[in-house]
Amino acid sequence: MITSANIAAIANNNNFKDKELLKDLCTLFEDKKEAVQFIHLYGEYCELMDDLVDEEKNIERIEKAGRLRMDISVHPYWLKWCGQLAIVERLIHNQYFDMVIWEQADEIWKRRDARALNHCAYLMLFSIILIEFGDETLKKFSLRFRNHAHERHINDSI
Would you say 10 and 26 are in contact if contact means Cβ atoms under 8 Å apart? Predict the structure, then answer.
């Protein structure tokens, strides 16, 4: 269960450089514990899938991916909103694996753009913000979050 302490821990995530944005998101979702729990679970799954693609075969990771996928499929938030979120999940999956191919392309622009566009899991967060808070709130956060995700890779070698 997500508690105030869990939200505070999420707000202190060392991989998230824009602490102000993270604090604002935590405040936004303060009363949406089920949504936060699902976002956290989905994010963990996406990060693990990225590791499975980028790193050597690891049976423990593969087992964990299967367990997380099952946890997602039976999570109350997913069950409530799967009609809207399933297409988003499918588009995220498709874009991510397109970017895996682009990362190996001969064209520099594909390799460069793949570094930012493979962060498409934030589309699930955006969908949940839209469901929970509406279009105006999504507008308030989407550009900030997108900037944060893309700036993480602005100086990556390609």
Answer: yes
Q: Which 3-state string (H, E, C) describes 89-126?
A: HHHHHHHHHHHHHHCCCCCHHHHHHHHHHCCCCHHHHH
Q: Report the run of H or E that residue 86 belongs to, with start and end.
A: helix 76-102
- Whether 124 contacts 149, CB under 8 Å: no
pLDDT for the residue numbered 151: 81
Under the banding of pLDDT at 50, 70 and 90, the label for residue 1 is very low
Would you say the pTM of this structure is higher than 0.85? yes
Q: Which residues, in sequence order, are CB contacts of 27 under 8 Å at separation 6+? A: none
Judge contact between 21 and 144, C-beta under 8 A.
Answer: yes
Would the CA dihedral through 100, 103, 105, 111 be positive or negative?
positive
φ, ψ dihedrals at 80, nearest 5°? -70, -40
Binning pLDDT at 50, 70 and 90, where does residue 13 land? low
> Distance of alpha carbon 147 from its chain centroid, rounded?
14
pLDDT in tens, 62-73: 999 999 999 999
